[in-house]
Specification:
By secondary structure, the chain is mostly helical. It has 23 helices and no strands. Helices cover about 70% and strands about 0% of the residues.
Length: about 475
């Protein structure tokens, strides 16, 4: 689209609110197919069909088509697609190595099973996410190990994926190198160190409550007979493949691009496999028959294809909401309700959540809310630290609590890509939402904070805050 075309919102027969129909239909469809335990391809239908249905209601069909194409080609979406593909290859290497079953066998012997492993998963994922500054990237990094191992040692699959996504949310919320932390601090003119320090009052109590919930909900603790047969033959040499996630995590911590980190992780796994002879050259790539194809690399790519298609369609939905004027509608509506410091803070939280739901990206929502938060801060003398924390913590709620959000979708896909055996169940997006506790608890903490003023007096820059 040219600049002139981009400057105007898409128009609809029936009024501007038609822009919300596709995502509402998708949400209804997501709940339905989740209750039916549908497979991944059904998610394609749920997101794509509403885009087709709305076509007759669009006035400028050519512009609509260009908006969809722009969504397909979103830079963020392309990064996710590349990450999904490389993560699929990495996971295939780890599956071939026998590492998962070996770790599971040792953990059973240590009695770190059931809900104990879920708690450990939340904490470990949180530590990784704090270091890397990305929740989605962390989910890609830890899932190939933590999910299948936890499954094999008796952890409830939905709670296990929930703990991984929750840990990613916790770490991203608190990390000084997270794009949400940087965006929330800079848009409010605050130093990152001060923002992170002041955020402890929100994130640490939320994490403690989350740990308590994971400790008492779920299986109590021993691997079943069915699981035991998968962990009876540990292969100590396969532990060398732990270097794969270690390399990935180290490079992410050192601020290397996620794609670079995953690529080096794959190379590490292949070299270890060839050195130990656990992986042979013919296992990496082979032609089993004329015009046939096989091997670890191909299997990893093929396993990632369903998620790649879903990401493409998801970002088309998100771009339609943005270019169709959905964000403007929400901002204009919210600005009518501000009457004092409490309603101002509530508006900051509600506006950010609304923009997050529309855009599907919490960082974009923080940037979109930043200017209005500044205006409200000046008018009602709300500290910049307070405003930054309200925005970042709000971005840690519904960004993980709507079935079409990227972390939720990725979490669900991980349960399919890294299932420890063929008949293992897939965790649906709705189950991911209902089994991750950090975002739910953070939502309660935010409501408590705004209504009671908790955390409002920590700042030194304002007589009110």
């Amino acid at each position: 689209m040219n600049n002139k075309e981009k400057g105007k919102n898409l128009k609809f027969h029936g009024g501007k609110f038609i822009v919300f129909i596709p995502i509402l239909l998708a949400l209804i469809g997501l709940v339905y197919i989740a209750l039916q335990n549908a497979n991944i391809p059904e998610y394609w239908v749920v997101f794509l069909l509403p885009l087709i249905i709305i076509m007759p209601l669009v006035k400028d069909k050519r512009k609509f088509a260009n908006i969809i194409i722009d969504g397909f080609s979103s830079r963020v979406g392309m990064i996710l697609i590349a990450a999904v593909m490389l993560a699929g290859i990495s996971g295939t290497i780890l599956n071939e190595s026998g590492l998962v079953k070996t770790l599971a066998a040792y953990l059973v012997n240590l009695n770190l099973v059931g809900s104990k492993f879920v708690v450990a998963t939340f904490i470990l994922t949180g530590v990784v996410a704090i270091s890397t500054g990305t929740s989605v990237g962390t989910i890609f990094v830890v899932s190939p190990i933590l999910y299948p191992v936890g499954y094999l040692v008796g952890s409830t699959p939905a709670l296990l994926i929930g703990a991984i996504v929750s840990g990613g949310a916790f770490g991203d919320n608190l990390s000084p190198v997270s794009d949400t932390t940087i965006a929330s601090a800079t848009t409010q003119g605050m130093d990152i160190g001060g923002v992170v320090k002041s955020r402890l009052k929100y994130s640490i109590p939320t994490a403690i409550i989350t740990i308590i919930l994971y400790s008492f909900i779920g299986t109590g603790g021993s691997a079943s007979d069915q699981i035991s047969e998968y962990v009876s033959n540990p292969q100590p040499l396969s532990l060398l493949f732990l270097l794969v996630p270690i390399v990935i995590i180290y490079l992410c911590i050192r601020q290397h691009h996620l794609i670079e980190a995953l690529s080096y992780g794959i190379l590490t796994g292949l070299l270890i496999g060839l050195f130990t002879k656990i992986i042979t050259p013919s296992m990496i790539i082979n032609v089993p028959e004329p015009f046939g194809a096989g091997g670890i690399i191909l299997d990893g790519i093929q396993d990632s294809v369903p998620t790649i298609i879903l990401v493409l369609i998801l970002f088309a939905q998100i771009n339609l909401l943005k270019e169709g004027g959905g964000i403007e509608i929400i901002i204009n509506y919210m600005s009518k309700f501000v009457r004092g410091i409490k309603t101002a803070e509530l508006s900051i939280v509600t506006l950010l959540i609304s923009l997050n739901i529309v855009t599907g990206l919490n960082t974009a929502a923080i940037i979109g809310t930043g200017e209005i938060a500044n205006e409200m801060g000046d008018k009602y003398k709300i500290s910049g630290y307070r405003r930054a924390n309200l925005m970042d913590c709000a971005g840690t709620t519904f960004n993980y609590l709507i079935p079409y959000m990227v972390p939720v979708v990725v979490g669900s896909m991980m349960s399919s890509m890294y299932a420890p055996f063929e008949d293992a169940v897939m965790v649906s997006t709705v189950e991911v939402v209902t089994h991750q506790f950090y975002p739910w608890v953070m939502l309660a903490v935010l409501i408590f904070s705004v209504t009671t003023g908790y955390g409002r007096k920590f700042a030194i820059f304002s007589s009110i805050d």
